[in-house]
Amino acid sequence: MSAEQAAPPRILHLHSTFASGGKERRAVRLMNAFGPKVHHAIVSGVPGQTSAAAEISRALKVAWPKDFPPLQGRPTPGRLKRIAEAMRGYDLVLTYNWGAMDAVMASTLFGEAFGLPPLIHHEDGFNEDEQRRLKPARNLYRRIALGRARGLVVPSETLEEIALTTWAQPIGRVRRIANGIDTEAFAKAPRADALPGLVKRPGEFWVGTLAGLRPVKNLSALVRAVAPLPEFCQLVIVGEGPEREAIRAEAERLGIEHRVHLVGHVQAPERFVALFDLFALSSHSEQFPISLVEAMAAGRPVAAYDVGDVAGMVATENRPLIVPPGDEDALSRAIGSLLYDTEARAALRRANRARAREEFDEKTMIAAYRRLYASAMGRPTLP
C-alpha cells in the first residue's frame, strides 16, 4: 500500500444545507459507519443551518472550513475559480443537490488544471421552484457541470430516469443507491413521553410526520386533511423550518389548533416514530423519503400522496392508501379508513415492517457507498 493510501482519507462534503433533513442524516450515518479513520470537512450552503451535526459521532475528526467561498451566488469565472481552489488538498469531494452545483461546475472547469480530487454528486430531489417542472436552464447547467463528475448518485427510480434522459448523463456515471436505515433500531416500543412536551394518552390516534417545515412539504394540506376527522385524531409534526407559523395559522383557522402539535426538531426518530398510529406525507414533491422508510421499519401504516417512489416503497397491502397528489379529500379518507379498523392497522404494520427489513436496511446502502467512494479514490476499500 502506498503512503498516500495509508493516510486517512480526507473527504470534503459540500451541502446545499446541513439542517437535519433526509440527505444530511444519511450523510451523517455514512460518516459514522466509516469510522474515525476517515476525516471529514463539511460546508453548508446556508450558513448556520447545521443541526444535522448533532448526530455525528464524537469519535470522528470533522472540520468546518470557515473561509470556504459561498456555494451560492452568480457562477462567474472568478467565483468558480475560488471554489475550485478551496477544493484542493482533499482525496474526495462529495456534493449534494442543486445548492452545491456551482462546486460541481468549478470541478469540471478547473479540475484538470488544479489537479482537483474526484467528485461525486448526490441528487435527492428538488426545491419548491422545481417541484412541478424542472427549469430548462438548470437542466443545461447540470449537463455541463456534471461532465467531469466521477459519479452521480440518486436514491429513486424517478431521479435515475431524469439523470439519464433530461440531464443526458451516461449510464456508467449514474448510480442508484436506495436509502437505508438501521431497521432493527425502530423495532423497540417507544415511551409515551418520548416527544418533548407531549404525552400520548389512551384513546388518542396520532397521525404523525417528520419533515422540514418548508413549502414543498405542503404540511398545511395535512392539517386540512385531519381537520374533519374526530377529536381523538391528533396531528403530530416533527421538524423545524420557515413554514411553522403558516401551519399553526391554518390549524387556528380551522379550529383544531388543540389537535395539531408542532414539536420542533427531535433527534433519534427511532425513539418516537412508533408512537404514530399512522405516518402521513402531503408533499408536493418527494423522491425516496428516509422518513417513510423509518416509519415502515417502525411498523406504521402510511397515507401519502403518490409522488416520487412513495407508492413503490410501501408494502403492496398499503398502496390503496397512496392517493393522487393534491387530493386532500382522498388523503383525509385514507387516514380516516384506519381510525377504527384495528385489524387493518395490524396487517399494515406487519407488511410495512417486513418490506423495510427486506429492502431498505442500511447495511446494503453503506456497503454500496463504501465501494463507490473507495473506487473513486483509487483505494481497495475505506478503512
Number of helices: 13
Structural Rg: 21 Å
- Give helix and strand order, one letter per element, not per position: HEHEEHEHEHEHEEHEHEEHEHEHHH
Strand order of the largest sheet: 3-2-1-4-5-6-7
Q: What's the story with the biggest beta sheet?
A: 7 strands, parallel
Q: How many extended strands?
A: 13
First-residue to last-residue Cα separation: 13 Å
Question: Class by helix and strand content?
Answer: alpha/beta
**In terms of per-residue confidence, which ranges show pLDDT below 50 for 5 or more consecutive residues?**
none
Structural shape:
globular
Q: What number is the mean pLDDT?
A: 94
Oligomer state equals: single chain
Instruction: Please give the share of residues in helix.
Output: 25-40%
Strand content: 5-15%
Written description of the protein model:
By secondary structure, the chain is of the alpha/beta class. The chain has helices spanning 3-6, 22-34, 77-86, 101-114, 136-145, 157-164, 219-226, 244-253, 290-297, 310-313, 328-336, 342-359, 362-376; strands at residues 10-15, 39-44, 62-63, 92-96, 119-122, 151-154, 174-176, 205-210, 233-238, 260-264, 278-281, 302-305, 322-323. The strands form two sheets. A seven-stranded parallel beta sheet has the order 3-2-1-4-5-6-7, sandwiched between helices. A six-stranded parallel beta sheet has the order 10-9-8-11-12-13, sandwiched between helices. Strand 5 (119-122), helix 5 and strand 6 form a beta-alpha-beta unit. Helix 4 (101-114) runs parallel beside helix 5. The two termini are 13 Å apart.
